[in-house]
Write a structure and sequence with these properties.
Blueprint lengths: L1 H64 L1 E7 L1 H10 L1 H6 L2 E7 L5 H8 L4 E6 H11 L3 E9 L3 E4 L13 E5 L2 H13 L4 E2 L12 E3 L5 E5 L4 H4 L5 E4 L1 H6 L9 E2 L5 H5 L1 E7 L6 H10 L2 H11 L4 E2 L2
Parallel strand pairs: 1-2, 1-3, 6-9, 6-10
Antiparallel strand pairs: 3-12, 4-12, 4-13, 5-10, 5-11, 7-8
Keywords: Lipoprotein, Membrane, Palmitate, Signal
Pfam families: Lipoprotein_9
Protein name: YaeC family lipoprotein
Length: 307
Amino acid sequence: MKKNILGAAVLAAVLVSGALSACSGSPKETTAADTTAATAGTQAADSKEEETTAAEAETTQASAELKEIVVGASPAPHAEILNAAKEVLASKGYELKIVEYTDYVQPNNALDSGDLDANYFQHKPYLDSFNAQNGTKLVSAGAIHYEPFGIYAGKTASLEALPDKATVLVPNDVSNEARALLLLEAQGLIKLKDGVGLEATKNDIVENTKNLDIVELEAAQLPRSISDGDIAVINGNYAIEAGLKVSDALATEDSQSLAATTYGNVVAVREGEESSDATKALVEALTSPEVKQFMEETYEGAVVPLF
């Protein structure tokens, strides 16, 4: 009986020992697998981090390699069009910095002084007039687009309803005033001296059957002052900024008019820099298919590409 008890005890000890050995073997195998997986995960993470670092370094290097070109522009549509040209310009090796102006004098002064590499806000007649009045030597590097001038309603809703002695607001700078007067003449509201063309001022009006009061204001002030007049003749870019649509204008310049064929908006640079690599790249970007599509889809006739 004692022998049987002793044998059973020994057998139980052997079984327990075997069970313990089996259990202890399983954790050892799991730990090895986990270590291998962790090592692989760490290596993958390190590899991904290296790839990210390399990509960031490549982007930084590419950005550092771009040459900066600083261009002055009116907010709309010129700055908007420039923004649309940024990627195209970057592909040509230039990083575009846009400086916005809300008048027609500062961007030319800044270009003349060297604060800008170019500007994009004006047409050639205005540029020529500015040079003549200020002794500057700024030149056109290329015409980009045309913005139809429009007559917009103020106190009076239509040209037919325009009363005698109505107030008509026009730009006060020489080239834009002439353009406004030509548009008024085309509508039969006034008649200008023969041959005066793009040099016309209100002093050149020889017929004014409605005795219209022609009031000259700074071009940028016209949209804000429209309610003070019966009608206003407004530059395309300032009309766009004010949310005025060409389709709402009482009249616009004909596409074959003297103004339409003359007043293309240009990229201006200092004399001697019109053929520089930077200028060529800027003009090429602004006359790219991508920018043309942007103009046509965004402005719906208020901005007309000249390329």
